[in-house]
Amino acid sequence: MNEEILKNIKNEFPILKKKKKLCYLDSAAITQVHQSVIKEINYFYTEINSNVHRSAYKLSEISTEKYERTRKKISTFINSEKKECIFVKNTTEAINLIANSYLYPILNENDEIIISQMEHHSNIVPWYLLKKKKRIKLKIIPINENGDLIYDELEKIISKKTKFISVTHISNALGTVNNIKKIIDIANSKNIPILIDGAQSLTNFKIDVKSLNCDFFVFSSHKIYGPNGLGILYAKKKYLEQMEPYQGGGEMIKKVSFDEILWNDIPYKFEAGTQPIASIIGLEKAIDFLEKINTEEIINYKKNLINYTLNKLSKIKNVKIIGNPENRANIISFNIKNIHAHDFGTIANHFEICVRTGHHCAMPIMNFYNLSSTIRISLGVYNNEKDINKLINCINKSKKIFN
Amino acid sequence: MLELYKELIIDHGLNPRNKYHMLKYTNKINAFNHFCGDSFILYLNILNNKIEDISFEGQGCSISVASASIMTTLVKKKDFIQIDLLFNYLKKIIHNDLTLDENNLELNVLSNVKKFPSRVKCATLIWNALKEIINEKRGINNA
Fold this sequence. Notes:
The structure holds 2 protein chains of 2 kinds.
Chain A lengths: L1 H7 L5 H5 L4 E2 L10 H14 L9 H21 L6 E4 L2 H16 L5 E5 L8 H10 L2 E5 L9 H7 L4 E7 L11 H10 L4 E4 L11 H4 L3 E5 L10 E5 L1 H6 L10 E4 L4 E3 L13 H16 L3 H19 L4 E3 L9 E6 L4 H10 L2 E2 L1 E3 L4 H6 L5 E5 L6 H17 L2
Parallel strand pairs in A: 1-13, 3-4, 3-5, 5-6, 6-7
Antiparallel strand pairs in A: 2-8, 7-8, 9-10, 11-12, 12-15, 14-15
Helix pairs in contact in A: 3-11, 4-11, 5-6, 12-15
Chain B lengths: L6 H8 L12 E6 L6 E9 L2 E10 L2 H14 L4 H16 L9 H4 L11 H19 L5
Antiparallel strand pairs in B: 1-2, 2-3
Helix pairs in contact in B: 1-2, 2-5, 3-5
């Protein structure tokens, strides 16, 4: 069964089925969209296009039912309550929402927020904005040369002023998998609320927010084979209930007069205005697909492929892999001596290979390694050894051009 | 194989001309591309609206380094009006399909970036920095 799935898996992604030569190695930026998702979105627009939670007619009832079914599916998938899952634009918006609705009202001058050296800009800039507005301090969990967090430092930088910890599960730039259970346990033992940036998590791991016991967990649909423009904020209901709304508008209120407004219940309090309904309905199918590929055999297949890639890359002279984390996800960053990452990106494009080049929206970690850019590859379930061999050939060809 | 990486680009990209730290200069400017992290410093000796000497240092891709190298060889001993003509020509050939002028062989190799929109900024980064200095010298507000 699993073998059968893997053999035909490229054909389950319409773009890969159509563009046979395409070698897509940028799934950490955006995953290709599964055919069932596209089919569902097409069904929405051609059969049931209507707004949700608003009308008594049949179409609206169907779309509302499907919309809420996705929420139920996600909550079951990550083991939360349904009302603890909020639809947002993406991981970035989820973090901004927490910064503004939860932390902004409770922060005092000199309070502290802890993040890490390896965060994506989306888990740095919202806190920097708070720092400017509320005169708080940002403290940073350092990393070592391998690109692993120095966990011992976390306990040292926590103080009575620490109001929040926000760290990524997986480094989008290096591929490091952090031991989030360890970080969450430390945060819990000190009663400090903690957010996990799970943007890269769900294609690598099964997530159970209850057993992790984190306070907030955020991720994006476009990195789990679903549509873009959609993300999920999970928060424990005790926070959602006490938090102020993020945006005002339709749906998020119960009663409005010009003197008084009564907020809607959670999760609706945080979903102002019409949401991307088609995408939300499509996301249910992406979760179905994730469940289908969440088998030991397929997980091992992906692990073996990343090890195959590491092994091949490490044998090429003048290729330097950035970081050597203890536990690596589906991501590898590297550089080739005398070839700038962007030049390689252009040459790779010539061979229809898609790689990410640049600072990966994670400049602090680039600064740590004294680099301005790297070549990053990130694998999806549709990648295979042929894709990797194509990449390796391209590296060898590039070396010939630049020598 | 790849038209963009013609010999001249590789040559200037790998062995850039006038790439050194200038000690005495009249003007200096940083050129930074936040999209990719390419970063250069341009040093100039300007006398009477004419570039007497020019050099650059820093890091970037082969296109931005080659463009900087080619620029320094072309603008040395030229006055601002001549430089305007060169930059305007470069902008035209990388944005439009202007017929190439055979007298501008070195700039013409940069014309291939027009097929790679994400690389246009690499080719113009150092030229824009030079233009900023020229505008400043002319007393034009660069807003």
